[in-house]
Design goal:
The chain has 181 residues and is mainly alpha-helical. It has seven helices and two strands. A two-stranded antiparallel sheet has the order 1-2. The N and C termini lie far apart (95 Å).
Length: 181
């Protein structure tokens, strides 16, 4: 028996109605049972339900189903993600019927609170972001003190960056005219 299964049995025996999933979200026993009864496609990991093949065809052509099977959202959340993908990622416009089928499936099978992804790391556990002003200021100070050396960008003898120099057309080599035989 796995450790999680043992804990679940103990909690169930104690009459507990709620336990905490590995990701730290609170899940009721009814939600867990409901999700356990759903049939999962072994290849994609998607819940087999009405419109699942449409979602698989439309969404899996661009990304792994893990991007939505490990996530939960409201209908508005899912619609917003589709809009974002259409505006920013080049996703094609769906016919209204197809978009409704996708949203129905995601809303029914991947609602908020049933996500299995882990919680975000707390700020003290994350590495510093090198693009924040504080990290940049620290970098500049170390550079001034000589503790680090700035990376060198290769340049030509002229001192100009080879990637930024203007392109010049090469003239064909001039040959002496050909003499008739």
């Amino acid at each position: 028996m796995t450790q999680l299964f043992k804990r679940s049995l103990i909690l169930a025996a104690c009459g507990a109605t709620t336990f905490f999933a590995l990701n730290g979200t609170s899940v009721t026993a009814a939600e867990t049972e409901k999700k356990a009864l759903k049939k999962i496609d072994p290849t994609s990991g998607m819940i087999i339900a009405e419109n699942w093949l449409t979602v698989q065809a439309m969404c899996s052509s661009c990304h792994s189903p893990k991007l939505f099977t490990d996530y939960g959202g409201t209908r508005e959340t899912w619609a917003g993600l589709i809009d974002w993908m259409q505006k920013k990622q080049g996703l094609w416009e769906f016919p209204p019927k197809i978009e409704t089928q996708i949203l129905d499936y995601l809303e029914e099978n991947y609602p908020p609170g049933e996500a299995s992804r882990r919680r975000n790391l707390s700020a003290n556990l994350r590495p510093p972001n090198p693009y924040t002003s504080e990290a940049r200021a620290e970098y500049e100070e170390k550079l001034k003190r000589g503790e680090i050396v700035a990376p060198k960008i290769p340049t030509e003898p002229s001192g100009q960056d080879p990637l930024l120099r203007p392109k010049t057309e090469k003239k064909p080599e001039s040959r002496p005219p050909r003499l008739p035989r």
